[in-house]
Amino acid sequence: MLYNEPSPLETRVLSRRFGMPDSESIETYLATDGYQAFLKAAKMTPDEIINEMKASNLRGRGGAGFPTGMKWSFVPRSSPKPKYIVVNADESEPGTCKDRLLMENDPHQLIEGVLIAGLAVDAHVGWIYIRGEYRYLIEVMDRALAEAYQRGWLGKNIQGTGFDFELYTHTGAGSYECGEESALLESLEGKRGVPRIRPPFPAVAGAFQCPTVLNNVETFCAAPPILLKGGAAFAALGVPKAGGTKLTCLTGHVNKPGVYELKLGFPVKQMIEEVGGGMRNGKKLKAFIPGGSSCPVLTAEECEGATMDYDSMAQRKSMLGSGGVVIMDEDTCMVKACLRLMKFYSHESCGWCIPCREGTAWLTKIMTRFHSGGGSQQDIGLLGDIAKNMLGRTFCPLGDAAALPMISIVEKFRHEFEDHLNGKPCPFEHSNRMVAV
Amino acid sequence: MTFSPQLEARFAKLLESYPAGRQRAAMIPMLMYAQDEVGSVTDELVEEVAQRVGVTPLQVNEVISYYTMLHRKPLGTYHVQVCTNISCLLHDGDRLYEHACQKLGIENHGVTPDGQFSIEEVECMGACSWAPAVQINYDFHHFVTPEKLDRLLDGLRKKQ
Questions:
Q1: What is the predicted ipTM?
Q2: Same structural domain for residues A31 and A147?
Q3: How close is the nearest chain A Cα to the Cα of B67, in Å?
Q4: Touching check for A371 and chain B: CB below 8 Å?
Q5: What residues of chain B lie within 8 A of the CB of A135, using their CB?
Q6: Is the peptide bond before A200 cis (omega within 30 degrees of 0)?
């Protein structure tokens, strides 16, 4: 089901079946071009499929934004080992709630995307790694898988193409770190979710040490529309270096929070004002996180002229990330928001790399002291210092994911830290009232 | 240990879902599904799963301690999980959490004396656009106000 009203400004490609009656059923899927992209791909060579993906300019939708076609091309197809497809449905980047909708409303699109990836890299087995909290989606996906097997869209010799594919669901058990690809693979193998040292990358030695394509749910879901309408048509929806649309989760202080599918390159201001219905209670924008809590925070001034795409965000020294947009109004205490994020990263650090394990813990301790009025002038510098010393010194990006928002908040909102000094109570507590929704 | 036929069928399917010799991969899903039936990850369950996937109980314990959703002690019949991460925080999720603690008279990871409710302050659960969000067992509740939460909890209490 849908949890918010769609917006007329959306470009619904991946979400086009959302809201249709029984959108999750195979009947609805087949009646709306379902599995036609797979049949088309089955007549193509692996290189032709990969070239179509490259032409689409699709970049990974989980957060890192790596070009998908290139990722698929890294799989050594001639390897004697079996090749595997793994779907990252461990959506847990704070601010992000889109993969949930893709699976809930259109599970067959994901299955078809996996099949296309299977054809492209000669893989015949795959797993959908779904975060533990999304138990109801395991039921949804299992039902869809059963339908697909029953109708001959999974299993042996799919629709007479000679192509075999087995697909399974796999539940996680509560861990943000398992959204990181190598930690996810460890977890899939029944181990603690501790990241692996790379190289080798998953394309060469992934699940069970075999060549593996591992992508986000939204990335796989883009494959059927790309194959069906052509890579060029998908690319044309976006901006020159990044094709297509992005499921964007508007969260925080807007009138109409929700998940909306927008063309890449959509203007930030228009997104807040028109898609999101403007700032709640007519307040002013203070801070903006473009795609999940791991991105550096932007100020309202930096949002001027910004568009939702990789380059525009990189120019502003932030990232497009996962599509989890967090919008904060003028009454938000940035010290409190930052403290909450540090608490999160400290809780989720797997503990392997010392800069991350110790750094996130210290940042949380200092921020806690700061927010309660016990901070000192020196602490402000210390926060930035600790965070900068975490950057690039860990095996996975979790250390950076904590350090980047910390550095950006302390640099851009230093005055708010100063306002908490000398035992002063939080200057924003008075305005933080309950709002009936 | 004996499990329900449904759970046994699920176990059988899980053990066939991974490459030969890689049955350890079934461990976490088996623990997750069994926990729902048993109530928590008991020592007996650890031994059972270890034997079924072909590892030592120590190796299972080592994995359990990593994951927040694998519980060694029983939770309440209704496990109330309140998100206070950034998107929920901006909609007063922290106050909603405090309200829930007061209402139930327990603190984080606590269980009510009658075993009906337990509470946990959780990290982002993927309901950010419909904040503040609460999960009770596996059910999501969106746009939760203190009043709505009161009604929900009172309703569950009566159901018992």
A1: 0.97
A2: yes
A3: 5
A4: no
A5: 138
A6: yes
Query: Domain span at residue A317?
Result: 245-329
**Which residues on adjacent β-strands are paired with residue A264?**
none
- DSSP-assigned letters across all residues of B24-90: GGGHHHHHHHHHHHHSS--HHHHHHHHHHHTS-HHHHHHHHTT-TT--SS---SEEEEEE-SHHHHT
Q: How far apart are CA A405 and CA A94, in angstroms?
A: 12
Find chain A residues with C-beta within 8 A of B26's C-beta. 190
Question: CATH homologous superfamily for B5-64?
Answer: NADH-quinone oxidoreductase subunit E (1.10.10.1590)
Task: Return the number of other C-beta atoms located less than 10 Å from residue B10's C-beta.
Answer: 19
- Find residues 333-362 of chain A whose CB sits inside 8 Å of chain B: 336-337, 340-341, 344, 347-348, 350
Contact B69 A173 (CB under 8 A): yes
Task: Indicate the helix (H) or strand (E) that contains A31.
Answer: helix A26-31
The answer to whether A256 and A4 are in contact (CB under 8 A) is yes
Instruction: Clarify whether residues A262 and A383 are in a common domain.
Output: no
Distance from CA of B57 to the nearest CA of A (A): 13
Tell me the average confidence (pLDDT) per consecutive run of 10 residues in chain A, 437 residues long. 92 97 98 98 98 97 95 96 98 97 98 98 98 98 98 98 98 97 98 96 97 98 98 95 95 98 98 98 97 97 96 96 97 95 97 97 94 89 96 96 97 93 73 37
User: A326: Cβ–Cβ under 8 A, 6 or more apart, which residues?
Assistant: A94, A95, A251, A252, A288, A289, A293, B86, B87, B90, B128
CATH (domain of A407): 1.20.1440.230
The minimal CB distance from B53 to the residues A4, A190, A348 is found for A190
The tally of domains found in chain A comes to 3
In this complex, which of B27, B33, B146 lies closest to A190 when CB atoms are compared? Answer: B27
HSE-up (13 A, CA, CB side) for residue A53: 31
Distance CA A57, CA A235 (A): 6
DSSP character for A275?
I
Do A79 and A134 fall within a single domain?
yes
The matching CATH number, chosen from 3.40.50.740, 3.40.50.720, 3.40.30.10, 3.40.50.300, for B78-159 is 3.40.30.10
**Are A52 and A156 in the same domain?**
yes
